[in-house]
């Protein structure tokens, strides 16, 4: 098997934007450039990126000039209650012009376990391709899996998963995926019962894990790829931990604001001359509470969740790398075994079989030598055939993984850039709101008439106060 070399072009493809920055040499064709004017358009930009339904399809827009012919939308979560359980289904609407489909428009309802099934089948059918991750089944933050907020996050994640699969040049043509998108409920349940069993999957997983430790000569480009994914995973994990810590501090701050606002209201009951100012302060604090709550929610959906998603993506890529290693490890083991059998064959030619077990049993030593020679010839022939087959599998696995990684790298650059820009937009919008609230509060309190009560104004007949 020819070992691929680690060229400069390969290194360039997997340049880490978190380390090198968004420089002009990175291969992010067609992506926006970062400039200082972006902050001036932050609020408008963040709304336009998130409010349109077209944004659902932007994640994996056609970067390579391919014509998209499969569009999928996930929406309309609906709760179902049976005797044993309660669960949520989502409507999956598909529009396509592909000849493989018996129609152009389909609408089915699927639950999370159905999404999990199709992902497992795609992994089984295409072990060396990168299958996108699904969101985790349970959320540690939101225990209520039927809440509107949780369902919105889950719906967005499922939409991303199906869009990525639909845009994949291989996965999107899988028969099981077509069944997932088009089959009626009873047909789909019958189809789900087909496939490999649990024990088979566990056995494959153990084999893949052991192969990663046994492999001796992983090609340099895949070694670099593995190191890159480990580094990226570590960076995203740190960002995720910091994000969680910041979210906790923001929630603590919001709780304090919720206690702070009523203090001004209670104080206003005992200060006639300051009632207006104190109530204005209470109102300002309430506005800041709404702003920080909006920031917390939007940060979770537009920053924290995308980070978690890419953490899951890195684990998926590591798993595909281990599968590739398992195939190469099988190839290497067969090559070693073939070398041993050839050495044995050469030794048999010059060996003396007079004292062999066969000779002691009454066989002619030359016949014993001939039988061993023929047996080794057959083993060598089988091993050569097996080696050629595994060499082909290794070459295909390498090509599949490199092609998928090139696509993923482009999408990752765009996704992480947009995630960071969303975070910046949210921070700018939050502080602009709070600044506007406190500037308005200062102007209101500086109005001397504002701090007087109607009862005070009634006593002062020559004064016409302005009560907010």
Automatic annotation (TrEMBL):
Assigned keywords, A-Z: Coiled coil, Cytoplasm, Lipid-binding, Membrane, Transport
First-listed, main subcellular location of the protein, grouped into a coarse class: cytoplasm
Disordered: region residues: 1-47
Entry annotated with the keyword Cytoplasm: yes
Keyword Coiled coil: yes
Biased composition, class Acidic residues, residue ranges: 25-35
GO function terms (MF aspect): phosphatidylinositol binding
Membrane topology summary: Peripheral membrane protein
Gene Ontology CC: early endosome; phagophore assembly site
Location within or outside the cell: Cytoplasm; Endomembrane system
Any Gene Ontology biological process: endocytic recycling
Residue ranges annotated for the PX domain, each copy included: 68-187
SMART domains, sorted: PX
Residues in coiled coil: 366-393
Family recorded in the similarity comment: Belongs to the sorting nexin family.
Protein name: Sorting nexin-30-like
Species lineage: Eukaryota, Metazoa, Spiralia, Lophotrochozoa, Mollusca
